């Protein structure tokens, strides 16, 4: 798991689309660790996989040493996202 990649994601407004395979792999590792809300999409026509970073989770914010409410910038209030983070 890359805390540095988590820091990079924290600086970008969400949602963000990732197309680099290495970044997608890193995103999936962070998601498996419960540090980000994210998903991957693969087009039906055999296209390239795309990662979608949605938000840092409370655990992700804690891993960066920040208070839980300090990373709300760039993340829009979304009831579905709030369910993912619970």
Q: Could you give the order of strands across the largest sheet?
A: 1-3-2
What is the beta-strand fraction?
A: 15-25%
Straight-line N-to-C gap: 21 Å
From the alpha-carbon coordinates, what is the Rg to the nearest angstrom? 13 Å
Largest sheet entry:
3 strands, antiparallel
Q: Count up the helices.
A: 4
User: Class by helix and strand content?
Assistant: alpha+beta
Measured as a percent range, the helix fraction is 25-40%
Mean pLDDT: 79
Shape: elongated
The low-confidence parts are 70-86
> What pattern of helices and strands is seen along the backbone?
HEHEEHH
How many E-type strands? 3
Give a verbal description of the structure.
- The structure is a single chain.
- With 86 residues, the protein is an alpha+beta fold.
- It is 40% helix and 19% strand.
- Strands 1-3-2 form a three-stranded antiparallel sheet, with helices on both faces.
- The longest helix is centred in the N-terminal third of the chain and has 12 residues, at 21-32.
- The protein is elongated, with a radius of gyration of 13 Å.
Q: Would you kindly provide a brief summary of this structure?
A:
The protein is α+β, with helices and mostly antiparallel strands and 86 residues long.
Keywords:
alpha+beta; 3 strands; 4 helices; 86 residues; disordered C terminus
Record the SSE blueprint.
Elements lengths: L2 H9 L4 E3 L2 H12 L3 E6 L8 E7 L1 H6 L15 H7 L1
Antiparallel strand pairs: 1-3, 2-3
């Amino acid at each position: 798991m890359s805390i540095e990649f988590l820091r990079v994601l924290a600086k970008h407004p969400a949602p963000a689309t990732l197309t680099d395979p290495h970044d997608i792999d890193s995103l999936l590792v962070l998601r498996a660790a419960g540090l980000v809300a994210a998903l991957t999409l693969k087009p039906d026509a055999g296209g390239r996989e795309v990662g979608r970073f949605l938000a840092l989770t409370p655990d992700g914010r804690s891993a960066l040493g920040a208070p839980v409410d300090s990373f709300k910038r760039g993340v829009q209030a979304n009831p579905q996202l709030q369910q993912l983070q619970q």
